[in-house]
Amino acid sequence: MRMNIALVKGDGIGPEIVDSAVQVLETVAARCGHSFAFTEVLAGGCAIDAVGIPLPKETVDICLQSDSVLLGAVGGPKWDGLPGGNRPEKALLGLRSAMGLYTNLRPARLYPALKDECPLRADIVEKGFDLLMVRELTGGIYFGDRGRREGKYGPEAYDTEAYSVMEVERIARAAFEAARKRGKKVTSIDKANVLETSRLWRETVHRIGANYPDVELQDMLVDNAAMQLVRNPSSFDVVVTSNMFGDILSDEASQISGSIGLLPSASLGDGRRGLYEPIHGSAPDIAGQNKANPLATILSAAMMLRYAFDLEDEARMIERAVDKALEDGCRTADIARGEGVKALSCTEMTAAVIERL
Ligand code: NAD
Question: Are 43 and 59 in contact (CB under 8 A)?
Answer without folding.
Answer: yes
